[in-house]
Every structure is written in C-alpha cells, then in structure tokens.
Specification:
mainly alpha, two-stranded antiparallel sheet, two-stranded antiparallel ribbon, 5 helices, 4 strands, 46% helix, globular
Length: 94
C-alpha cells in the first residue's frame, strides 16, 4: 500500500512536486491546492514527497509522521524512514 495524494482535497503529490518545481513554497502549495489543510494527515507525506522528490510513499507509522512534524517545526532536515531510503522509488509522471 502506498500514499500518493491528499485525500481530503484529492491532490496528487505529483501536482505538489510540479508546483514546487515551478517555484512555489509549501505554504503556497497548501494555499493553492488545499493540500494539508483538511485533516492534516497528508502534511508529513507531502513534505517528505517534496524532500525526496517522489510522488508515492509507503504508509508511515504515527511515530514517523511525528518525527517529520518535529523536524519541520525545528527547521531541521526531514528524517527519512529506513524503508524509503533502503529502496528508493522512482518518481512517476501522471
């Protein structure tokens, strides 16, 4: 199973990556798409997708999501879960 979008607003992470490539900040992407503004569960995924440049991620544990939120708040590099760094995925083009 993988995560590839904001469910609340049906925003594929490919769109998030494309907007970032066009120069948008994460905050601007959220404003434009609504990504991360509903339930908030996609925010760590969207941030990790941007950090890694991939549009599909494995399901993260609550601890991994919290570690990403803490790193963002502290303005630190995002922790990459071992399951991702051990088997990097290729970005998909939809």
């Amino acid at each position: 199973m993988s995560v590839d979008r904001c469910i609340c607003h049906d925003v594929p992470f490919r769109r998030v990556l494309d907007l970032a490539a066009a120069g948008a900040t994460f905050e601007q992407i959220c404003d434009q798409t609504g990504c991360g503004t509903g339930c908030g569960m996609c925010e760590p995924y969207a941030r990790l997708a941007l950090f890694l440049g991939v549009d599909r991620l494995p399901v993260l544990t609550p601890q991994q999501c919290q570690a990403i939120r803490i790193a963002v708040a502290a303005r630190q590099p995002l922790p990459v879960p071992v399951s991702i760094s051990a088997s990097p995925s290729r970005p998909r083009r939809d």
